[in-house]
Amino acid sequence: MGLVVQKYGGSSVADAEGIKRVAKRIVEAKKNGHQVVVVVSAMGDTTDELIDLAEQVSPMPAGREFDMLLTAGERISMALLAMAIKNLGHEAQSFTGSQAGVITDSVHNKARIIDVTPGRIRDSVDEGNIAIVAGFQGVSQDKKDITTLGRGGSDTTAVALAAALDAEVCEIYTDVDGVFTADPRVVKKARKIDWIAFEDMLELAASGSKVLLHRCVEYARRYNIPIHVRSSFSGLQGTWVSSEPIEQGDKKVEQAIISGVAHDTSEAKVTVVGVPDKPGEAATIFRAISDAEINIDMIVQNVSAASTGLTDISFTLPKTEGRKAIDALERAKTAIGFDSLRYDDQIGKISLVGAGMKTNPGVTASFFEALSDAGVNIELISTSEIRISVVTRADDVPDAVRAVHSAFGLDSDSDEAVVYGGTGR
Ligand code: ADP
Ligand code: ASP
Ligand code: MG
């Protein structure tokens, strides 16, 4: 039997009982003959609490010291988990991201993994230990500073280690039974998906289904690492995310036409009002944004008012980057020559994802009809080959998600989706 990487999210190790429960599960995998490498997140809402604390001493915490602070959360859980495993009579060693060989670029708070050199982890498991690695962190290649990978980054740590260690599978343990057709906290009738292709999962993750992080799925696809998303609270089979359909009985699971509905209320909308309608304006705006290292999502440019020769450009971005974006645009005001800026953080995004969209023109119309029947007004629209997204008022999101989920026949008629833990924060 080969090596498995198991990742346990914050809700699975929220308290001492959770840590002991997870320790038992890890020991079972070891007893079954696997070499086991575990990636662990900070306990419960520890990361949010550390951020709140930092904001009390500094208005916009960022950079080196902020990363140093946040990585403390995972250090606590990794040491406690190793202790709990030892208490069950098995050998375990904990490692920080840096000790585990997670090498990143030097962009603090959202570093990218550029290499993984897990020599110490390999030695530790070869000596018979269970290796516990702190998720969400690494060390920068050039400055040797401690970095973090962005919120939810432990998923990426797990897949990156699985790839570097040539693991059989990467198991992501969380507080729901797998990937569902919508967030079970919003849609009680969401249905568990048995298998989903990397492509569809990438779109769901990018559209806000935080059960798996987008970068983690990207990494898994690049190295073809199958992911098994499952609950640490139940013994059920979860969701397989891979390139090829899994077998069920003697049949292959079929690719769904519609994979699911995702939502995201973590973004804000910036509108640059009164931009001269001439070549080079969009370039200047988005150069200023990119120089500030801000990733944007949707962009819409309105039709120019013929009388004034002016147009408005709106785009969405993570709320956490809002202040930075406004500052960057204000600094570039003379170069761009706009009238004013508008900032709106009361927006939400709803996305429908499915490979069937490529060949089924009716999908778009049904999506808009469902929103209209629910009385939801659409502010922005964007599409890819297998996704349609709209921006609405944040308050409309839960109703809109449920309406679209029902309209596409995704509601399950059996068990309600179970949420075992976590605060959804
Ligand atoms: P962890 O602490 O284990 O990393 P997260 O809170 O990051 O857990 O992710 C699990 C949560 O993702 C679930 O509790 C659920 O509310 C949310 N979620 C959003 N979309 C989906 C989906 N399509 N399927 C399952 N869970 C989803
Ligand atoms: N603890 C970090 C967070 O809350 C990383 C993770 O849980 O994946 O974002
Ligand atoms: Mg997560």
Which descriptors would you attach to this protein?
single chain, 425 residues, 12 helices, binds aspartic acid, Carbamate kinase, binds adenosine-5'-diphosphate, binds magnesium ion, four-stranded mixed β-sheet, alpha/beta
Write the layout of secondary structure elements.
Elements: E1 3-8, H1 16-31, E2 35-40, H2 46-57, H3 63-87, E3 92-95, E4 102-104, E5 113-116, H4 119-126, E6 130-134, E7 137-140, E8 146-148, H5 154-164, E9 169-174, E10 195-197, H6 198-206, H7 214-223, E11 227-231, E12 239-242, E13 247-248, E14 251-252, E15 260-264, E16 267-276, H8 281-291, E17 299-301, E18 310-318, H9 322-331, H10 333-336, E19 340-344, E20 347-353, H11 362-373, E21 380-384, E22 387-393, H12 397-407
Parallel strand pairs: 1-2, 1-9, 2-6, 3-6, 4-7, 9-11, 10-12
Antiparallel strand pairs: 4-5, 7-8, 11-12, 13-14, 15-20, 16-18, 16-19, 17-18, 20-22, 21-22
Helix pairs in contact: 1-3, 2-3, 5-7, 6-7, 11-12
